TrEMBL record:
Pfam families: AAA (PF00004), AAA_lid_3 (PF17862), Prot_ATP_ID_OB_C (PF16450). The keyword Phosphoprotein does not apply. Its main location: cytoplasm. SMART domains: AAA. This is Proteasome-activating nucleotidase. Homohexamer. The hexameric complex has a two-ring architecture resembling a top hat that caps the 20S proteasome core at one or both ends. Upon ATP-binding, the C-terminus of PAN interacts with the alpha-rings of the proteasome core by binding to the intersubunit pockets. Belongs to the AAA ATPase family. Consists of three main regions, an N-terminal coiled-coil domain that may assist in substrate recognition, an interdomain involved in PAN hexamerization, and a C-terminal ATPase domain of the AAA type. The lineage of its organism: Archaea, Methanobacteriati, Methanobacteriota, Stenosarchaea group, Halobacteria. GO terms for biological process: proteasomal protein catabolic process; protein unfolding. Residues 181-320 form the AAA+ ATPase domain. ATP binds at residues 192-197, 331. GO terms for molecular function: ATP binding; ATP hydrolysis activity. Residues 1-17 have a biased composition (Acidic residues).
Length: 404
């Protein structure tokens, strides 16, 4: 390497001759020029290196983006070895040895849930399975709803009792007659008409565990996860026999096939197929009854309505006038009512409302009384409550139209 010249002192004594001074300065200039050249070379090398890293960064960013875009699969870590991580994919149960970055490795242990890409590289670690199950499935050992809490849908209640309660309590009757009880019951109708209540009440009255799963929670998940959750659901029900499985918003996993072939659709299809296959093997399931509910009957794939599946359809409509009177009475059982309260007039004035609307009116009427510092709820409180709720509903409709 060339000698560096850092000092700013002149490279000669004060008494040196002119000629010698020039020579020394020239010598110094040469050294500096050499240094300059060397620095320029280094700078060029560094620039070239920088370019190389930039390109690599761009490539990795692009690959990373691609990895995130492509569908991910769920797998469970089986073993952590020096050669990599052994994972087992959900759905097909295939095992694979895959490499993992040191950073991710520190987050993993046997039984960790991970998301893997097409080439089975671990992309990220996932929440604990129990967290997902808890979010998707609610287990209620004894729901509090009774048949007496439900108003205006007697016919539907009788049908649910016949199809769910009878097989649970008197399976021998079906054997004696020589017929199979209906496999699944599908409740369909507008929101807030008591579908969930019916399922809870029948579980309560038969001392069965109520297990609720929301269909919408099963979609937009990783490949293989929806069907695994369906298997887990039936396993959970088996552990809690007798049990009533309630699948709310079944349209989320059982909508008619669309033409699009996106991976999301395929995953929804797989989840539904798993549900159907669990239902097809239903005979051995003993004391488990399945009730599903939807507000979108028109959207359902007819495959789920075939015999042996959801073969008992029960429409749960909004209550009629008599039903509304009854529901008003039910929801005001514990309220301190003034003598002027007349449910027949209220049921008439409210018009075509759902049971959930009636419940909302009674609660809001109570709030009006509290705001007015009264303990007794009056007829006007109910009227004001309905006016307020109606105005809010109209506002909501306007908002949803604006954003539609
Ligand atoms: N027929 C009814 N009798 C008494 N209360 C009712 C009735 N229908 C609805 N309600 C009241 O409305 C609430 C919501 O009803 P529920 O959840 O059973 O409706 P749903 O039909 O399952 O609605 P969604 O389709 O929106 O899930 C109930 O907790 C209850 O307070």
């Amino acid at each position: 390497m060339t000698d560096t010249v850092d000092d700013v002192d002149m490279p000669y004594e004060d008494d040196t001759s002119q000629q010698e001074k020039i020579e020394s300065l020239q010598e110094r200039l040469e050294v500096l020029e050499g240094q300059n050249e060397e620095m320029r070379d280094k700078l060029l090398d560094a620039n070239a290196e920088n370019n190389k890293y930039q390109q690599k960064l761009e490539r990795l960013t692009h690959e990373n983006k691609k990895l995130k875009q492509s569908p991910l699969f769920v797998a469970t870590v089986q073993e952590m070895t020096d050669d990599g991580v052994v994972i087992k994919q959900h759905g097909n149960n295939q095992e694979a040895l895959t490499e993992v970055t040191d950073e991710l490795r520190s987050e993993l242990e046997p039984d960790s849930r991970v998301a893997v890409n097409n080439s089975l590289s671990i992309v990220k670690s996932l929440d604990d399975e129990t967290d997902v199950r808890a979010r998707v499935m609610q287990v209620d050992q004894s729901p509090e709803v009774t048949y007496a809490d439900i108003g205006g849908i007697e016919e539907q209640m009788d049908e649910v009792r016949e199809t769910v309660e009878m097989p649970l309590e008197h399976p021998e009757m079906f054997e004696d007659v020589g017929i199979d009880p209906p496999s699944g019951v599908l409740l369909h109708g507008p929101p807030g008409t008591g579908k969930t209540m019916l399922a809870k009440a029948v579980a309560n009255e038969t001392d069965a565990t109520f297990i609720k799963m929301a269909g919408s929670e099963l979609v937009h998940k990783f490949i293989g996860e929806g069907s695994k959750l369906v298997r887990d659901l039936f396993e959970l029900a088996r552990q809690h026999e007798p049990a009533v499985i309630f699948i709310d918003e079944i349209d989320a996993i059982a909508a008619k096939r669309t033409d699009s072939k996106t991976s999301g659709d395929a995953e929804v299809q797989r989840t539904m197929m798993q549900l159907l296959s669990e239902m097809d093997g239903f005979d051995e399931r003993g004391e488990i009854r399945i009730i599903a509910a939807t507000n979108r009957f028109d959207m359902l794939d007819r495959a789920i309505l075939r015999p042996g599946r959801f073969d008992r359809l029960i429409e749960v409509p909004k209550p009629d006038y008599e039903g509304r009177v009854q529901i008003f009475k039910i929801h005001t059982r514990n309220m301190n009512l003034s003598d002027d309260v007349d449910f027949e007039v209220l049921a008439d004035e409210a018009g075509e409302v759902s049971g959930a609307d009636v419940k909302a009116i009674t609660t809001e009427a109570g709030m009006f009384a509290i705001r007015d510092d009264r303990t007794e709820v009056q007829m006007d409180d109910f009227r004001n409550a309905w006016e307020k709720i109606e105005a809010e509903e109209e506002e909501d409709e306007d908002v949803s139209k604006t954003f539609a």
